[in-house]
Amino acid sequence: MDVIPNNESFVLISELGFIKRMPSSLYNTTNRGATGSTGGVREADELSHCFSCRDHDRVLMFTNKGEVYSCFAYEIPAASKQGKGRSLHQVVGIPGDRRVTSVLSVSEDGSEDLRLVFMTRKGLIMKVEAKKFETIRASGKKAIKLNEGDELAWVRLAQAGEGIFACNSQGLGITIKLDSIRDTATIGMGVKAMNVAHDDNTQIVGMDVLPRKVLEELERETATEDGPWVILVTEQGKGKRLPVSHLKFQTRGGKGKIVIKLEENDALAAARTLETPED
User: Fold this and answer.
1) Distance, CA of 80 to CA of 87 (rounded, Å)
2) H-type helices in the chain, by residue range?
3) Quick one: DSSP state of residue 134?
């Protein structure tokens, strides 16, 4: 690997399971409102993941069935903007009936203090030392055990002192300190982060890590209206920008508190946190 340049690259993964790597030099900064340039996905396909990394980074790909597959970024076939990429099955062995729900890149200089935080659609959370995923066999490995009817939806990198915000399709949200969740020594099923009934259509629709600085401001009640924010979007296309300062810590396993009021026959579709207005 020493003879391979550690360049910056963009990695794209499509909904139909194709992946490619492109040098970041192919893209230029554009002004807001510009048309942009093509990413080169197949007809009737859509982009599902796009991220930047260094070519020596280890890329972890997690599926909806709770498995993880891995490769070095330089092992992902390079392509042009117009190139369609190679199938994930060819590159890392992911079966065609799996969907990649989360992708992480971990730099070569270490995952010693990092944790992986897993969240399922039915509100289970698990925290694991990132170093446990430094070596993964070519056929992949089980990352989390799932109940029947549940699926892995998010995996995020986190550090000590940080927290998570999650919300469900009913417009309820919960804020939890990650230090209140024990590291899992072996691959398990996780614990309940948010109380989501398994006998209806309610599910988690968004989860993000809250940095330590944000948690400290919430504890001191010094967070401002100027951000960061939680962006909420409903199935009927309505949106809301909620300052993180409005969030309150809650006990793990609770039902959460209302973060957006929904009209009849509407449901929350997605939620993300943004650090700055430029995000």
Assistant:
1) 16
2) 88-92, 212-220
3) S
Structure-block tokens of residue 242: 């909620």
Burial class of residue 266 (count of CB atoms within 10 Å of its CB; 0-12, 13-18, 19+): middle
User: What burial letters (b/e) apply to 100-117, b meaning 16+ CB within 10 Å?
Assistant: bbbbbbbeeeebeebbbb
Query: Hey, how many other C-beta atoms are within 10 angstroms of the C-beta on 78?
Result: 13
- Edge-to-edge order in the sheet of strand 239-243: 239-243, 229-234, 268-274
Tens digit of each residue's pLDDT (9 = 90 or more) over 254-265: 999 999 999 999
| Alpha carbons 223 and 245: distance in angstroms, whole number | 5
141 pLDDT tier (thresholds 50, 70, 90): very high
CA distances from residue 231 to 113, 176, 272 in whole angstroms, order as listed: 29, 18, 5
**Cβ distance 53 to 140 under 8 Å?**
no
CA proximity to 123, closest of 231, 255, 234, 211: 255
Q: Which helix (H) or strand (E) holds 105?
A: strand 100-106
Q: Which residues contact 2 (CB under 8 A, 6 or more apart)?
A: none
Average pLDDT, the chain: 87
What pLDDT, in 10s, does the model give residues 169-185? Answer: 999 999 999 999 999 88
Structure tokens at 4: 């391979």
The answer to whether the CB of 193 falls within 8 A of the CB of 253 is: yes
